[in-house]
Amino acid sequence: MHAIGYPLLKAALALTQRRRYRHLLAAAAAPDAAQQALLLALLAENANTDFGKRHGFGHISSVAEYRKAVPVATYEDLRDGIERQERSGEPCLTQQRPIYYSRTSGTIAAPKNIPVTAAGLAAIRAQRRLAAYALSKVPRVLAGSVFAITGQAVEGKMPGGTPYGSMSGLLYRHQPRLLQSRHVLPAELSAIDDYEAQYLAMAIYGLADPAVTCVGTANASTLLRLLAVVNKHAETILRAVADGRLPTDCHLPSGTLVPPSANPRRATALRRKLDSEGALTYADIWPNLAGVVTWKGGSCGVAIGNLQPTLPKPCAVFELGYIASEVHATVNVEPRRDVCVPAVADTFFEFAERDAWEAGGAEALTLGELETGRDYYVLVTTRDGLYRYDMNDMIRVTGRIGATPTLQFVQKGKGVTSITGEKLYEGQVLDAVAAALAEGHWRTPFYIVLADRRQAVYTLYLEDLEAKQETDGLAGALDRQLQKANIEYASKRASGRLAPLRVCRLPAGAGDRYRAQRVDAGQRDAQFKYLQLQYADECTFDFAALAAAG
Prior knowledge:
Blueprint: H1 2-27, H2 31-45, H3 50-54, H4 63-69, H5 75-88, E1 100-104, E2 112-116, H6 118-136, E3 145-148, E4 156-157, E5 163-165, H7 167-173, H8 177-180, H9 195-208, E6 212-216, H10 220-232, H11 234-243, H12 264-277, H13 282-285, E7 291-294, H14 300-307, E8 316-319, E9 330-334, E10 339-342, E11 348-353, H15 354-358, E12 375-381, E13 389-401, E14 404-412, E15 416-417, E16 424-425, H16 426-440, E17 447-452, E18 457-463, H17 472-485, H18 487-494, E19 502-506, H19 510-520, E20 533-535, H20 543-549
Parallel strand pairs: 1-5, 3-6, 6-7, 7-8, 17-20, 18-19
Antiparallel strand pairs: 1-2, 4-5, 9-10, 11-12, 12-13, 13-14, 15-16, 17-18
């Protein structure tokens, strides 16, 4: 089926997306002009909202006037307007009433419900189709089935009746028909509350289809967990693949899922692989897998490093793009080079140079004012009622298309610690840990670095070192790498203001236990991510006790 459908899919994407693709690249020639036109259109559209009247949208005629009239905002600054508009239908933030809310965890106990208007949803859908068109240019990636892991589209309803859930799940349900026909996983899977049962079901559908050429997920750690489930429950999964039945004893909802067709030959072939090699890899499961589309920035690089040895040799890992619940900020227009261009016609962007922002005196910059190789914090104004919204995200300018900078997510702004003024960044820690592990040929599936302000010490907690290797050498190697990366860290270590870095071994499964705790606290499993540099007194999981228990 896919051999016939692939040329048709490519032709359909080219027919519908080629002009839009060229329009995006044309707008990249003059990003600031495109951005100002977008901003003024958004302000005119929402001038009669409560927020628009309060901030004089009707009288703003430039970016500079907008900055003077509207302060930088967090979600908590906008929460009242968001909730009031949903309950009453009054135009508090946008003239259009939101049709959906993308729910995500907040900085306080209450979740953030990000409004999505019809216009906003249409823009996001158009961006995802553009991304699919760009991906279709890479040979073989969309030639077969697509194994895409998403969240649940509708998790419930707001007090006013508007649905909320995971935007990835909503987009999954609204894929073009030609793309939907290639998806392996039924959308209903995301509604399974029991995560173990959900992963088991995903494994059964995945192993039943040898024609997968593309995998998509927000975080590569999800694929590592899925592979662990495959090998832990291999007999159950292979029996289900052979029989074409979902197991009745695994708490799967009955009657809601149509099982994959029985395939005893497929099950037998995988069982032989398992018997001969002791464990299955993705190279065994999907030998024609050509691409994995996922986040590559921040802490995701660790999971990708652990995932890559399990993939077929020709398989590439492509950047999903700078995408968050609040904004779909970039489109990867050249996946083979991970060229991610800001969606200049959909979101108004402002930036602040990293050091100046953290010092409290940053001047807002436009896209055209950014410099290649520099790091910036991001503010966004969206079609959906977020005005000068502080993403607390740090991005890096990686290059340019036309006059428009290409962007890469670096880390959350919170990923910074300072015990005695060293200002250690999560990005520095990620690079230093990777270098230290490589230096000693260590491997680990999970680690986290905690800054203990009380004892003035950094501790690397890492799971199940292979062959129970000694950690003294690793501590020294990591300390040297951090001193090389951060002169203030080196100064504080030399002066004794920072104690020598410590390494503590965690038992096998520690990373999964931490993940489970965060999921229980409300974080979505499919979008699981964590700061790999945190303050010890702010971390909600007791790694020290787990390490001591051994």
